Amino acid sequence: MERPLTVLRVSLHHPTPGSATFAYVPPQLEHDTSPLLVGRGPDAHLRLQLPRLSRQHLSLEPYLEKGGARLAFSLKALSRKGSVWVNGLTLRFLEQVPLRAVNRVAFSGIQMVVRIEGGTSLEAFVCCFHLSPSPLIYRLHAEETDERESVPQEQPPPGSGQ
């Protein structure tokens, strides 16, 4: 009897309309328990076409918590030239943070929300990708910039309630 896979529901947004940023994003990707690489390189499992993005920018890393019966995940920053913002924390090269049930991530102008729906399989997981035409994050609680250039964060429009 097969065990249900953990599902990562990943919503992605980039502010450039009609860009080719998400040209290589599949609707769904089943993956073993090795790190899932995100970047612009040919070896990235989730390829995003942005010149400021590193070939391997970050990874989603499944692991089994001590005494746990389900996969847990962490996010690890792999870029030497840019940072990754996760749930209010700014990660630099090789820093990582455990993920919660719902996670807000920003890097190189991309906004990403990762929702984890736990399954019981310890051998694989599946990512379901959704491309959002609307911004996913309105207020960053930590600075999300690339080290080479500082980009001021936009404030939400007045009356948006955010």
Attribute tags:
162 residues; mainly beta; Tumour Suppressor Smad4; 7-stranded mixed sheet; 40% strand; globular; disordered C terminus
Q: Overview of this structure, please?
A:
It contains no helices and 12 strands. The strands form 2 sheets. A 7-stranded mixed beta sheet has the order 2-12-1-11-10-7-8, with no helix packed on it. It has a 5-stranded mixed beta sheet with strand order 4-3-5-6-9, with no helix packed on it. A hairpin with a 2-residue loop joins strand 10 and strand 11 (110-117). The protein is an all-beta fold and 162 residues long. The protein has one domain: Tumour Suppressor Smad4 (Sandwich), CATH 2.60.200. This is TIFA inhibitor. InterPro entries: FHA_dom, SMAD_FHA_dom_sf, TIFA.
Q: What's the shape? A: globular
Termini Cα gap: 46 Å
Task: Walk across the major sheet and give the strand order.
Answer: 2-12-1-11-10-7-8
Unreliable spans are 142-162
- Number of helix segments? 0
Number of strands: 12
- Measured by DSSP, the beta-strand proportion falls in 35-45%
CATH topology assignment = Tumour Suppressor Smad4
Please give the share of residues in helix: under 10%
SSE topology sketch:
Blueprint: E1 6-13, E2 28-32, E3 36-39, E4 46-47, E5 58-64, E6 71-77, E7 84-86, E8 89-91, E9 96-98, E10 102-107, E11 110-117, E12 124-131
GO molecular function, one term: deubiquitinase activator activity
InterPro entries: FHA_dom, SMAD_FHA_dom_sf, TIFA
Protein name: TIFA inhibitor
